[in-house]
Amino acid sequence: MINVLGISASPRKGGNSAFLLERALQGANEAHPSEVTTLAWGFPGKTIAHCTACDACNRNGGHCTTHDDFQDLVDLWIEADAVIYSAPVYHMGLPSQLRAFMDRMGTSTLFRFGAAPNEPLPQKLLKPIGAIVQGNGFASGQEQAMQQVVAHAVLMGCVPVVADDWEASLGVAGTTGFDLAKDAIKSHAAAGEALAEGSVRGARALGRSAVEMALLLHAGAEVRGDVMASSDIYSELRRRTSEGPSSLFAERVSAEEGAK
Known about the structure:
The protein is an alpha/beta fold. The protein has helices at 16-31, 56-59, 70-79, 96-112, 142-155, 184-190, 194-223, 225-228, 235-242, 248-259; strands at residues 2-8, 36-42, 82-88, 128-135, 159-160, 172-175.
């Protein structure tokens, strides 16, 4: 089973970022229905503080000692087989709350898999990671923000994934056309506006591509276990593909479905 985690990094509940993420997760579910589980995690109402460089994660097995919603999200992120970020553009880049999550995760996970303090063990996690970014204008920072996600994916030992060519070269870019309504892209797509329709198509294709890449990566890991056994840098990938993920992801999906 491929677990796909969708992260909506906008503070607006039910806004444009959440809408495009829903389309991406729909595309992921439709790609291989019997092999996919999807879960959406949203920033509205959540608190993720910035990294303070206290170095505590180095001393206690990669666990951040700032207690907020970070730990919930990072645990799900580790268990996911593919991750899709959907975010608005803030000041020609990603929102600070998403950057805070990436900063803390990048630092703490470096020590999460080490055997002892001061012994970082980076991992080739090899998760497909995709980006959906939307802004007011046609060219108002979407590509810069997507490049930040690509850099994050590489630093986490993962694989950046895009959708179909011309609609998603670095990820999926959306624009509200300076419409400030939280459902602007949804309403524009429903009205047949070409750019909005392209964003919706791109989001669905990105979800499909993330699942397909995850399936290929899992198949390759299963066939070439000798490569994974050659280095501890593959230890987490080895766990995820041979033992399967923990019950955390399934339990959260079940709880979400029960709450509907």
